């Protein structure tokens, strides 16, 4: 999410003196995180939490997940087969098992059998849950939009649904909150590729010029994301960053309040902090 809004997930803030700051964000932070679906599935299936994300991360940049998010492969049976193969990699499972032991200060024991993952069910559960507006961030986004002080944009790692699929529609109204939306699956670039941050910066500059605002610089941008590597990529591009923690989205909204000076949390939500 940028301030100055993908799963779609990131954000930035431009502080331009007397001119309105610019806000660019990842849609994913405005909806319930698909990572929550992964965690819930792992717990329900007695899979060590973190395994699915570990596998996705370690198969970058040529894993099936990454190819799908870059729009290089279609969402079909071959994708699900490839995703299944990535999650059945014995070497990665061994590395994950050793990492868990190291975090606990233990010597790795025998590697347990690879867990079975119903990748197709998990994928669609991730897509389903990520269409639900986040109860903290989405209302904050609406208030930022209503203030008229911010340019709103989204930088999101996304997927292309088949033609005619119901998920192609913006039923929740999240995407309509943004002035522009940069999709990894449509640009062929995904976070944390340095090129996609440059695309976002140029899009923000073009929008600012169109509206008669001073040209924003990367250092004017505050980028919100829930993935460390994405935040590092934004920081390397010259942006300020804020880490969003799963289960503590309201903390990120509190940061937005500090940055913008606006009241973005409801009274009951403020009382919980």
TrEMBL record:
Recorded superkingdom: Eukaryota
GO terms, molecular function: phosphatase activity
InterPro entries: ACAD10-like, HAD-like_sf, HAD-SF_hydro_IA, HAD_sf, PGP-like_dom2
Pfam family, one: Hydrolase
Xref: CDD domains: HAD_sEH-N_like
Signal peptide: none
The protein, known as: Acyl-CoA dehydrogenase family member 10
Organism: Penicillium subrubescens
